[in-house]
Here is the input.
Amino acid sequence: MAKAVLQAKNIIKSFYYPTKISILDNLELTVQRGETVAIKGRSGEGKSTLLQILGTLDTPCSGQLNILDKSVTFFNKSKIRNNSLGFIFQSFHLLDDYTALENVLMPAKIGRKSIALKSEAYKRALELLDAVGLKDRAHFSTKLLSGGEKQRVSIARALCNDPAIILADEPSGNLDKETASVIHDLLIRFAKEHNKSLIVVTHDDNLANLTDTIYHLNNGKLTK
Here is the structure.
């Protein structure tokens, strides 16, 4: 039986200003190791808020989040985020004045790992850039890269610390249809080849249909 890498139990999230709005209502989600999951829903339903909570970037009003059998708390969430989670964003969030390689190495640097020339992190970053077809762009400033190339750098960066879970928020939202298709295939292939769990928020039916499980967020709850 597959082992759960993430469990969200009774997650409640509300915003109170200027008036109270309930976003997530006793939401439940379990993701198994190696499972790819898409979360769909109308704008304003709270998909990005949910992903931020699952990624420990936001805190629910109540409920429990377990990642790799560890309960996420205020005291350990930074460590869990750095060691177990990789992030891919619609707007890339790359550092434009840094090279592609330096961007991929950033999670290792934040995790206080050596990123010296012959370090394991350095070699892994080059291998990841090669795997996404950008080894020849390793020392290019990311401001010189196309949108599709930037997202490929983001995928490599997400895998830098060998996380168990990858979270992607509209990863092809800023890309044309042809480039988006390349990113979709690459993202799913990477998750499968590296046995990573993938949770992706998307409006794109083509990407959602590539995943193992599709959830719909409606009125604060997830349904298949």
